[in-house]
Amino acid sequence: MNNKFFTHLHISASQHLCIYTFTHIRIYTLIVFFLFIFSCATNPVTGKKELMLISEGQEIAIGKKSDAEIRDEYSEYKFKDLNKYINDVGYKLTKHVHRKNLKYKFTILDTPVVNAFAIPGGYVYVTRGILAYLNNEAQLASVLGHELGHVNARHSANMISKQILFNVGLGIGFAISKDFRKYAGLVGLGGNLLFLKFSRNDEYQADELGVEYATLAGYNTYEMAKFFETLNRLSHEQKYSLPEFLSTHPSPPHRIKRVIKLTKLWQSKVNYKRFIIGKKEYLMHINGILFGKDKRNGYVDGHQYYHPNMRFTFKFPKGWKLIDTRKYILITNKKNKNVQILITLSRESLDRTISNFLKKTKGIVLSYKEIRINGFNAVKIIEKVKLNGGYAIIQTFFINFKGYIFGFYGISPILSYNLYRKKLTIPALTFKELRDKKRINVKNTYIKIINIKKEIILKELMLKYNIPQKYHKKIALINNISLNSHLKKGDLLKIIIEK
Fold first, then answer.
1. N or C of the chain: less Cβ packing under 10 Å?
2. Which of 182-186, 229-233, 341-345 has the lowest mean pLDDT?
3. How far apart are CA 139 and CA 135, in angstroms?
4. How confident is the model at residue 410 (pLDDT cuts 50, 70, 90)?
5. Among 269, 121, 135, 142, which Cα is nearest to 210's?
6. How far apart, in whole angstroms, are the C-alpha atoms of residue 219 and residue 262?
7. How confident is the model at residue 37 (pLDDT cuts 50, 70, 90)?
């Protein structure tokens, strides 16, 4: 702290003579005090005072910056007039929200992950993954309404405010106790993790607002409860791997009862003659969307990774997990999370890529060697670097492949390096050009809407259409019916096709 701060608070000269620790305790205490006194705002939904350390303008700025990063990470999924349709449904809801001054934007993200979320400033996202599991417009409206609830109740802004206050609290603890200082790094990490997800109360409030907004817009939110049933089935089918929507939201069973109760309440308030479900409208708009991973941009079969569009392939160690994003590929050791392989792509020259890498790591280069890997020029570098308070080895291969530089970064704590050294080399040393036509011309899966011509049981229909057995349970799930369900003439059904 500088003298201007002391002068502003009119602290006397005698107080300047206090010991260093005591002075800092007082400063942090004053900061916390003034944060509480002067940083309360009225919640636009509840009308109650709450801690708010960021203004609406800052909230919008955060959202704008985050939106650009999200789009860079996942990119927008564009399909016929589906994007306009999603926005049209969203805008129907925004007529009934509490914060009508915000400019809302609804975006479909190109990922198979089943999720929906919102960020400060009015940015709402749904994934193409979640669209495949929704069955009508009312369910879509309910999901969008839930996310609008987070924005309108300023849940993200409140979370950020708590994080700021938490960090100030860390400063107090740091000043008070030497023991606290030793664990400050761990406490800070825990604090960040603590605020990554909304509280259960926030989620319930977003449900309430979702029902309110969607009902006022004329939608039947009993369908929201049916969608929670689908998510519940999905979570049981995936066993220990929850869909992302469930990992960031409370589990469905209890929410189903609450949504039914809230729907009954709000429908009695508005007293409309009918409420929109919109099954046909919704299904016609998602007819033909990509379902699951876009294999043309990379897929795994066994312990081999294939990228048809860029025509390369490599192996990765057995028992390890591969995570593929648009910006990088991460391969992690399930037994030791500290050991991993990061794969990135650069369009700069080999020399420039290496130079930039060494500037960032600032490590001790133990080995530097120019080599050839399956016909391509490459460089192998081994570095000792400081990482998380200790030392680690980064074993890097830079491979020049058709004008692109692939970086394979094998990272391991220094004490574990010899144990994992060979496995960290597997992806780089097996990297080669993909020439297998079967792997290049791989088929993707898509959603197709069919009209039932006559009454039939679902499992019989799938045999009639020669749908592969591996898709039978999934088709039942995305339609929220069973394999023994009776389909009536004129019913619309989602099926999964390959092409």
1. C
2. 182-186
3. 7
4. very high
5. 142
6. 13
7. very low
Q: How far apart are CA 342 and CA 345, in angstroms?
A: 10
Question: For 67-81, what is the mean pLDDT?
Answer: 91
Quick check: helix, strand or coil at residue 88? helix
Q: How far is CA 288 from CA 361, 472, 473, 499, in A?
A: 46, 18, 20, 11
Distance CA 283, CA 267 (A): 25
Is a pLDDT exceeding 90 seen at residue 176? no
What are 395's two structure tokens?
């074993």
- Please classify residue 12 by burial: count the beta carbons closer than 10 Å to its beta carbon, then call 0-12 exposed, 13-18 middle and 19+ buried: exposed
Q: Is the pLDDT of residue 447 over 70?
A: yes
Token readout for 497 is 């096709």
pLDDT in tens, 280-312: 999 999 999 999 999 999 999 999 999 999 999
**Cα–Cα distance between 260 and 267 in angstroms, integer?**
11
Give the angle subtended at the CA of 236 by the CAs of 233 and 238, to the nearest 5°. 110
What single DSSP character describes residue 309? T
Separation CA 332–CA 363 (nearest Å): 22
Q: Where are the beta strands (DSSP E) in 78-179?
A: 105-109, 116-119, 123-127
Does the pTM surpass 0.85? The reply is no
- Count Cβ atoms within 10 A of the Cβ of residue 482 and give its class: 0-12 exposed, 13-18 middle, 19 or more buried: middle
User: In 17-45, which positions are buried (b, 16+ CB within 10 angstroms) versus exposed (e)?
Assistant: eeeeeebbbbbbeebeeebeeebebebeb
Query: What does the pLDDT average to over 382-408?
Result: 94
